[in-house]
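Good morning,

Attaching, inline, the backbone tokens for the sequence recovery test we're adding to the shared suite. The designed sequence is right after.
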């Protein structure tokens, strides 16, 4: 698709240059660390290493919701990982997540034997089971929540790595991939809209980790906050998705969770690191400066 010419793949692909576009400097076909760097450790049972992307926001919302329910054992330190700078390729981070993606979590409830948890869906499920919250005990409802949790895990790569990349981050705009992935994302929005027409939340009448997983991606998309594509995808037309999005956005714990590890937008909405509940009042970027 380069310069309007058809691409003929070689018999064996090799990496001989950056592919271009945003994030080209951190894309590579191999795993493992690029440099030695230990991770900081704070005072709380949970150490989160993340950034306020949709995947990162899922987990900070979950922590804030758990704390709002009174689960003091869910206190956490949230450390900023700047993925544009390659922090995720430091040796300490790779030891927690060999896939070098945020978020990554260490459960240090037993400091002698810390437990690593990576992949946002795995983290949500781990915390839900550990604290007995936001995952229904009824088998039918639990199964429905997990259906939608794993739906998000499978669907979002088409939204982020597919549509988002070609619409917002690729070095040029090509009609075929944009159309292909726009069609798929609109199909996904229609799946959600039809389901939410008959359900208050993803698993029925109960707010669960399925909502926490889906909302940062598809709620932001429907409101035009993701990739600047709200008008292009006609996000406002999915009225049930928007109703659900607005309801979740009003939750105090969601408002707090969205702020953690955020480095863009209104400085008052950025709590780049979170180490105490009081940080929301005293350490947002508008209060501490550059």
């Amino acid at each position: 698709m380069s310069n309007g010419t058809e691409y003929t793949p070689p018999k064996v692909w090799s990496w001989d240059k950056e592919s271009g576009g945003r994030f080209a400097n951190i894309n590579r076909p191999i795993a493992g660390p690029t440099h030695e760097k230990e991770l900081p450790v704070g005072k709380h049972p949970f150490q989160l290493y993340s950034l306020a992307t949709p995947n990162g926001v899922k987990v900070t919302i979950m922590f804030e919701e758990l704390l709002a329910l009174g689960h003091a054992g869910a206190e956490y330190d949230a450390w900023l990982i700047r993925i544009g700078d390659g922090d995720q390729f430091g040796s300490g981070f790779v030891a927690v997540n060999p896939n070098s993606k945020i978020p990554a979590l260490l459960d240090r409830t037993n400091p002698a034997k810390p437990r690593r948890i990576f992949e946002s869906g795995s983290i949500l499920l781990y915390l839900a089971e550990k604290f007995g919250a936001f995952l229904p005990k009824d088998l039918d409802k639990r199964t429905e929540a997990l259906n939608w949790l794993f739906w998000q895990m499978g669907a979002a790569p088409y939204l982020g790595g597919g549509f988002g990349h070609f619409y917002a981050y690729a070095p040029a705009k090509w009609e075929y991939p944009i159309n292909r992935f726009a069609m798929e994302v609109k199909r996904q929005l229609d799946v959600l809209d039809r389901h939410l027409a008959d359900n208050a939340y993803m698993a029925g009448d109960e707010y669960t980790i399925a909502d926490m997983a889906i909302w940062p991606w598809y709620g932001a998309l429907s409101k035009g906050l993701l990739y600047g594509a709200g008008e292009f995808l006609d996000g406002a037309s999915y009225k049930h998705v928007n109703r659900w999005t607005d309801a979740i956005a009003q939750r105090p714990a969601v408002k707090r969770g969205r702020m953690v590890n955020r480095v863009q937008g209104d400085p008052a909405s950025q709590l780049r690191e979170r180490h105490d509940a009081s940080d929301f009042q005293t350490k947002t970027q508008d209060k501490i400066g550059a």
